[in-house]
Amino acid sequence: MVYRASEHRYDTMKVRRAGQSGLQLPALSFGMWHSFGDDANFQDSEKIILDAFDRGIFSFDLANNYGPGSGAAERMFGQVYRQDLKPYRDELVITTKAGFHMWPGVYGNFSSRKTLIAALDRSLQRMGLEYVDIYYSHRFDPETKLEETAEALDSIVRAGKALYIGISNYDGPQTARMIELFQQLHTPFVVNQSSYNLLNRQAETDGTLQTLADHDAGFVAYGPLAEGLLTNKYLTSKPSNLHLHWTNNFLLKNGQERALQKLKQLNDLAQNRNQTLAQMSLAWLLNNPTITSVVTGASKTAHLDDNLAALDHLDFTADELRRIDQIVKEN
Question: Is pTM, for the whole model, over 0.85?
Fold first, then answer.
C-alpha cells in the first residue's frame, strides 16, 4: 500500500527557529539513537516513523553509530525513506553525525577531515540521499585542531552534501571557538546538540547555552528524560537494569534514594500542572527560547502522543521555575 502523509500533519505542531538562521525545526524531533538497529522489526519501525511524520515531526535525527550496529539506524531509515518518504524530501529535515565509533581503525572515530568526509559519504549511501540537512561533528576531537574540523565541515557544505552544520557534545569554550571559526569561513552553523534535561544542567554551567544565545544559534537537546529517570517508571524504585547515558551517570552519585526523592518532588509539581513528569520535563526544556528542538525517541504511537501532549502547556510561573531549581540543586 502506498503511503500518503496526513493532510493535517502541520495543524498543531509548534515550529521553532534556530537563532536567526533560516533553519526551522519541530519542537520535538524524532531520534533514532536506539531501537532501530539490526535486531529491530522493520514494519514496527516503519510505522512509528510514519506516525511521527503524520503528527508533524518532520525532523529525523540519526548518526553513523546509531543502531545497535554501526550504520544500522541509517540503513533502516533509508529503507523507509525510499519506500515511503521520498516524495516528501523537501519537507524533511534529516540529520546525521560522525565522531563516535563507526568502523575499525584510527579513522573510525572523532573529527578529522578524512573521518568526517568518509563518514558522510557512507551515511548518504545508506540512506539514499544526495544531501543531509544538518551534518554534525559528533564530539570534540582532542587530537585534531578545531581549524581542521571546521574547515572540513565547511567544505562539505560547499560540496553540496549538507545544507547546514552542527556540532554535538562540545562544551561552552569549544562551542565559542567553533563559532568563531565558522564565522571566518562563512559556514552555515546553526546548532549544538548536547545532553540537557531537568537534572543535567551542564549546558548551563559550562556556558554552552549562553554562548549559543549570544551568537543567535540554536540548541538541540537530547536525553530530555534522562533514559527514563524523568518518567513515572522509577518513582518507587530504580531497577537494576537501568543504563544511564554517559552524560547522565552523575545523577545517581548521591545514591538512589536521594535521586528518587527528587523525582517524587518533581512529579508532585508536574501533577499540579496537570502534566506527567515526562511532559513537564519536555515543557521545561522548550520554555527556553534558545532550545530549537528536543530529540525524543518512541517505539509506540502512544509514546508519541504522550510526548506531543507536553506542547499543550509550555508556560511556567516564576514560582514553578524557582521550585524546580530548588529541588534539582539540593544535595
Answer: yes
